[in-house]
Amino acid sequence: MIKKQILEELELFSLGTGGIGSWLTPNTDNEVFDRLTRLSSEPLNNVQLNQLLVLGHGAPASDGFFNYYWATAPENHTYSVESIPGFDSSFLNRDAIVSLDHLKWGLYRLYVDALLYFGNVRSGYRALRAMGLKELNDFFTSRRINTELTKARGPSLPLEEIQREKRYLIAESVGRSFGTTPDSETGLRKILLEALLTHKMHDGGNITVGDLLASEHVTRKYGGRRAELEFAAAEIRDEFIDSKEQLESLCAKLAADYQETVDLAAKNTRRYLSMAGDLDVYVAATMNSREEYRDMAGKMEQIFSDIRLRSLELRYFDPTLSAGNGHQDKGLIEGLLLKCAKVVVYCPSEARTFSKDADAAMALALGKPVIFLCDTEQYARIKEDGHRLSHMLDAESGTAVGAIFTDSLSDVSELLYRIFENRMEYELEHPMKGYLRLKETVTGSVVRLQTNDPLLTETIFNHYHGAR
Fold first, then answer.
1. What is the pTM of this model?
2. Could you write out the DSSP letters of every residue in 245-297?
3. Which tens digit of pLDDT belongs to each residue from 23-51?
């Protein structure tokens, strides 16, 4: 094998950005390539690998580093290293690199780990190369999810059941529509009675609640609240009424359903707070209609009914089952639960809200996996144009953390299973010199990236890593 062939085989790892990413380039000392051509007949031990690294203007690595990346497939890594392209069980338990494929497998692992935990191959290698075998095992073990402990926790206190058709009643806008009491001067009941009286004075006859809310009287006097009022009255909007008594009865029943539902949701919120330290998945969603609440409830059931997730005993926050005591308290509760959760699932609607986008941004800035569950149309737009929350810098390390995008409920279940079983699979992509993307393989989403802008790279890492 000649120099040109070796460079082609190892092109993925030739970044030209300094450090180990510049070890193998057309300008590298020919002695490096001469030695690599003899791997099959003369396996390469760590002493000689370090010499080749130095000849390529790189830094040598510890024996433990060599053992970790080329001689073992650690069970306590944060993903299955056997899923890395090119793995062969014959690589294991050796004291030398026996082929170019063997060399590539270890480098691939190193690059994936560097992007995942340092955001940059050079910085990752700089930190990991000096560690001994125990240090490396401890480093990655500490970053794993403790799957066995998760399974062994047993069930938490049960949540209160709320009928799917009534979950929309926990929405804040529904609460505003009822006012401080069902008899409030600004409440739904009062407005409907006004509209019915006006209707009787002009047209008379049977009319639906929905038509009352669409009437000229309501539009003129309460036009700015019409969407809110129609949302609150969704359960009775198709009911025909022809008398004040009939309307009073419908409103009383709706108010009772509202109070019962909110009370159950408030109990659930207390249960969620009681399990905050054990919360696994936080689900954020924007829901602005009865149908969206009902649809979201169905999505939650479908995602978490996956038999593999049920066996994990996951604790997850269901936004269709929880209500806060006002907007401010709700924001504090959701912010706390998001901070405590290990993974965030975000279900944006067409009418996205600042608070939910902020949830996703906060989770990415905390370095958490964030799964965007989009509808088919949203997903197509994101695939074509990208998304402004596609990547955020981890506030602690400066690593560029990318969200995972999908329009498939089964993808979400699969991703949660892989994350909590430490079985994620990754693929490296090198689209241009010095630029790397790390994709997870279920959806092809870019979860980490390394820019080829040297000023940006150095500025990020100087500031985030504390160098001045």
1. 0.91
2. HHHHHHHHHHHHHHHHHHHHHHHHHHHHHHTGGG--EEEEE---SHHHHHHHH
3. 999 999 999 999 999 999 999 999 999 99
